[in-house]
Amino acid sequence: MRKWIQKTIVIAVALLTFGAISPNHEIWTTLQEKVHPKQTEDPSRLADYAIGLDDPVYADDGDTYADPSEDSLVVSAKEMAYTKFGSKIGPVIGDEFDEVIFPKIEEAIQMTLLHSEDLHKRKLAISERPGGDYSEKIFNVYDMDTRKDLIRFHVRTDKRPQDGYFFNFHYHVADDGFVTHHTIGDIYWSKNTPPKWLS
Hints:
Structural class: alpha+beta
Number of helices: 3
Radius of gyration: 18 Å
Number of strands: 8
Number of domains: 1
Strand order of the largest sheet: 1-4-5-6-7-8
Helix content: 25-40%
Shape: globular
């Protein structure tokens, strides 16, 4: 019951402040239950980036665990986005992406996971390979046990007559079979054709 209340408070604060207040304050550490002191896995060395949901992610042997934080999820998601942008697109759109688009990506993840069934039992991770060339994929959030995607984040290049090129950021969720296009926002590039992703 105590974990449920804690998760509700963390999600409520994140939603009410649109991520401006991070749940990494002293109050949250005092609410957390004590965890086993033997920590043998380093989350930064894992092949996938695990999502911090205040519950430890247990390894297969049952004796060791990794306790990833929500901060590691945010860092991983942002790393995947900038990897996709590459060295040509990233410096041009980086500021607007950080200020406008990425907070909405965080909110979309939190809202989707809030409505997910058996959230406390799942081991979630972020895919580590964004799509290159003209592919839309930025990253997916998936269940590590079933290997099924829960959320897919994409960016599409749109050419608008007279206006030029825009990057349309959007996501799809598993609840509707990834059919509905949930728009996050657009960033203007220029009238010139943008380079390929990962370049």
